[in-house]
Amino acid sequence: MTAIENSLSAASEPHGFDPGGVARWHPQSIAAVPGQTEIALIGADDVCPVIPGIDLWDSWPLAHEDGRTVVHGGRQYWFFLSAPIFPDPGQRHDHARIRLASLGEDGWRDHGNAMPDGFSPGTREWAGSAVLHDDGASVSLLFTAAGRRGGPPSFEQRLFVARGVLGVDGPGQWSSVEELVRADDARYTIAAEASGKPGLIKAFRDPAWFFDPATGQRHVLFTGSAGWSDHDYNGVVGIATLRGTEWVLGDPLVEAVGVNNELERAHVVVRGGRYYLFWSTQTRTFAPESVKGPNGLYAMVAESLSGPWRPVNGSGLVAGNPAAEPTQGYSWWVTGEDEVWSFIDHWGMQGRSFEAQPELLRAQFGGTPAPVFRLVFAGDSVTIAA
């Protein structure tokens, strides 16, 4: 039995917090470099639906504890956020369920909703991660519960883990679901808004598993909002650590107060003895007074999980949408094989606007995996492989 299979509890009490020791992301300029940090244009041939009638977006693979993607029976198992196709794709966030699909030599297979109806404690299921433990059988699905089951839709966010096993048809047989940790309202804002504007809601979501090879400790990274700041743009990358049988909140790894509101889907990979902390963000979530970057994948680098952290490539930008199509993709995830997965957002806009042509909201929304690309790691530099 693995440690995460034991009883998990919220184990932090609110306390005063001085953020002076938290690494700050405060770029002076951000610019994509063609051929190095600018993602290739997405075309019509790339928009290939995986499941008819279903939009898919944020994705993550079933991975080993060390980050390698699991191959089971010749297949990879991928979790996606999913929803029925709506006239306005923005409606998908109010109906999101985690969907399981597998990829093999014969292409994609749909395995339906990952968790049974009524199992999740929220009204919707938002992004997370999934790990096959070292016993080769037990699986933990970490995810965000948005809202509360039986209640009205809201932007309340809580972190949960479902425990299951790896069977012939992939991960499943979820036996229980338990809350991981709770925001302390000192380091991390309690995200419980009833309503809000996209890009401006507060965050406590996106739990991402990380096993530190240097210490042997198990951690969960997550997207949060600074509890010590009332700035509208106060995104942080948070962390919790498994100590015995309890997950314990730690101080944020990175903060972007006054710079950006959403450091989404944060996750860590280790390459060449360095730790690379990745996240996704969008132009619209940069503060008005801050420099702005493209919708893209960003990162900090350090020699250990405790830092000190410094921006990759000088600015933090690793891979951004091209200027010609600034919304073509989003929600990037770096696998243990250095592959980068994301989804096709609004592609092929060619400078057109939704205000002038509202039909483009549906017509140009991909709702399917984007072309996969690879990264090249070289010290503090991380670029897109040619």
Automatic annotation (TrEMBL):
Pfam families, per database record:
Glyco_hydro_68
Which GO molecular function entries does the Swiss-Prot or TrEMBL record give?
hydrolase activity; levansucrase activity
Indicate the secretion signal residues. none
Stretches for region Disordered: 1-23
For the keyword Hydrolase, the answer is: yes
Q: Cite the position(s) of the site with description Transition state stabilizer.
A: D206
Where do Polar residues bias regions lie? 1-10
> Tell me, which GO biological process terms does this entry list?
carbohydrate utilization
Family of the protein in this entry: Belongs to the glycosyl hydrolase 68 family.
Specify the protein name: Glycoside hydrolase 68 family protein
The top of its lineage is:
Bacteria, Pseudomonadati, Pseudomonadota, Alphaproteobacteria, Sphingomonadales
What gene is behind this protein? sacB2
